[in-house]
Write a structure and sequence with these properties.
The chain has eight helices and eight strands, in the order E-H-E-E-E-H-H-H-E-E-H-E-H-H-H-E. By secondary structure, it is an alpha/beta fold. Strands 5-2-1-6 form a four-stranded parallel sheet, covered by helices on one side. It has a two-stranded antiparallel sheet with strand order 3-4. The protein is globular and about 45 Å long.
């Protein structure tokens, strides 16, 4: 293991980088005490399509979320975003090697009516952990700590800042549309799941964490 624990913000079907850390740290903590900010990827995930990298965004209730405790941020269900996201995923990954095997789990996920962003993100993360067969269990934080300090602790809540002292070297793997775009780094982990199935775990372990 690379360290004692790492801490991230919540994520909607989080990125491959996050799961690389999950394979290398003994514990994973999810920030549950912060206040929501409009910037960031808390309600977004990135996949690859025929036109390259694209972002799926969960709509939030307008004008009511900024500054709220993250657990109180509500999803706007005035439009059927679940259908739109699932259709986009089906269109782009329908021909990937393991899509047929995992599609029922994602279809069931998108048929649920989630009210709070935090709960949806925790459930989406748990689904990926289950399907990837990873031995990790994210724990929501009980207190807000502005700066984590100490050997063996990685604060990955703000990747732009974290990247000043840690860099994840991705192990390439076959992707859909790689003939058009080459290898696209750090997509949502649904990409590596649909492309490799449980063999994704081997790639996560082969990816390297460099401490700068």
């Amino acid at each position: 293991m690379a360290g004692d624990f790492f801490v991230t913000t919540i994520g909607y079907f989080p990125s491959v980088e996050v799961f690389v850390l999950g394979e290398n740290y003994s514990k994973w903590k999810v920030e549950a005490q912060e206040h929501y900010q409009k910037t960031g990827l808390r309600n977004k995930c990135c996949i690859v399509g025929s036109q390259g990298r694209c972002t799926l965004s969960i709509p939030l209730e307008q004008g009511r979320n900024n500054g709220l405790p993250i657990r109180e941020v509500k999803i706007s269900n005035t439009v059927n975003w679940q259908k739109q996201h699932w259709q986009t995923i089906r269109t782009n990954y329908g021909k990937s090697p393991f899509f047929i095997h995992y599609a029922p789990y994602f279809e069931a996920f998108y048929q649920k009516g989630h009210q709070y962003l935090f709960d949806l993100c925790i459930e989406s993360t748990a689904l990926l952990i289950k399907l990837l067969k990873l031995d990790v269990s994210p724990e929501p934080t009980k207190d807000f700590i502005r700066h984590y300090e100490g050997e063996g602790i990685l604060d990955f809540r703000f990747p732009k800042t974290a990247n000043s002292f840690v860099k994840i070297i991705h192990q390439p793997y076959p992707q859909v549309f790689s003939d058009r775009h080459g290898f696209t780094e750090n997509l949502s982990a649904i990409d590596i799941l649909f492309c490799l199935g449980t063999d994704a775990k081997k790639i996560l372990k082969k990816s390297k964490i460099m401490y700068l």
